[in-house]
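Q: What structure does this chain adopt?
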Amino acid sequence: MTLKERDKKHLWHPLTQHKIHPEALPIIKAKGVYLYGEDGTAYIDGISSWYTAMYGHCNDHILTKAQQQMQQLDQIVFSGFTHEPAIRLSEELIKMLPSNQEKIFFSDNGSTANEVGIKMALQYHFNKGEKRNTIIAFEDGFHGDTFGAMSASGLSVYNGPFEDFFIDVKRIPTPNSENIESVLQGLHSIIETDNVAAFIYEPLVQGANAMHMFEAKYLDQILNICKKNTVITIADEVMTGFGKTGKNFASDYIETKPDIISMSKALTAGFVPMAVTSCTQEVYDAFLDDSVGKAFFHAHTYSANPIACAVAIAGIELLHSEEIQNNIQRIIKSHEQFNNKIKDHPKVKSTRQKGIIYALDLNIDMDRYGKKRYEIFNHFIEHGIFLRPLGSTIYILAPYVITEGQLNTIYDVIVDLLETI
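A:
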């Protein structure tokens, strides 16, 4: 029995309507930028397996650090205990995070990192004796699948059956040169009429919203108003963090720094699940009290897992290396050159780039999860490329170790699609 046949017996895959798409592609091995199928076919991983394996799959440096940690300490409860990998990781993160971040809270995935941030913000005001129960978020944002994170998300395909159970969220459009004044007026109105606890946002790039991008100067105006009104700001850097925008974090482009930052995905380089929610000293101090009830009662069994911490430290070492930093700049320039070649193609509606994140919109009418989207996906797979279209949007978010030749292969297959679609 093949892996495909065995898979269909018991497995339920995410974001999949199994009646329409009953089969999943088996992958038996991964190394560098390549995924290897059951039949030996190699596929270039053009999206770093959902933005995680940024240093390539099974990176030798990270693998060695993980193996060493496995032999020393595998798992320990993080309530009442601590360990050197968690301490060191916190030190390394604080060095690279915006300068107002002081405390690190561990969890195990991006949705939960945002859930933690939302709970921190709500309890921050509760502990100060204020009833603030409204969250502000951008339209069409995505922050995860747990209930608080899902409440803040604006993509209805994810949320439909659950909306009656959500926390109170008010949405504003992402800002641009044409709407910034109305966005700011709307923000003021919400703050004046609602008990606003927090504003959660994806800084500069909305990943699930087809890599929608907006400018830092407009976001900065929004954050400044939030700060003046004691609205806790939560930067969802789960997708954008760890070098993808050209800086350590997208928040580095913005003058007004967030109170809380959520991180996951590339944090552990595609090896093991882990997430972090960082915060300012002011947020942390609101939980310090003689009353146990004011503590932050949120915990995960695998919080600060030592192996995950060791992997994250190794990933940060690579990110800061001269080789990876040079590679990031090389990929940015390659995308710019490809964009100059492709942007005026009649089948291209628009293009955009932030750091190594590149996206183009096809000039065709299609549903986000319709038949045409899967035809495009299959076109890439048939040509040895793993790209995952977001409706009519094709994007590249490849590992930092990808070569020029491998990038050109991706570009060529995209051009071929434009000529044949």
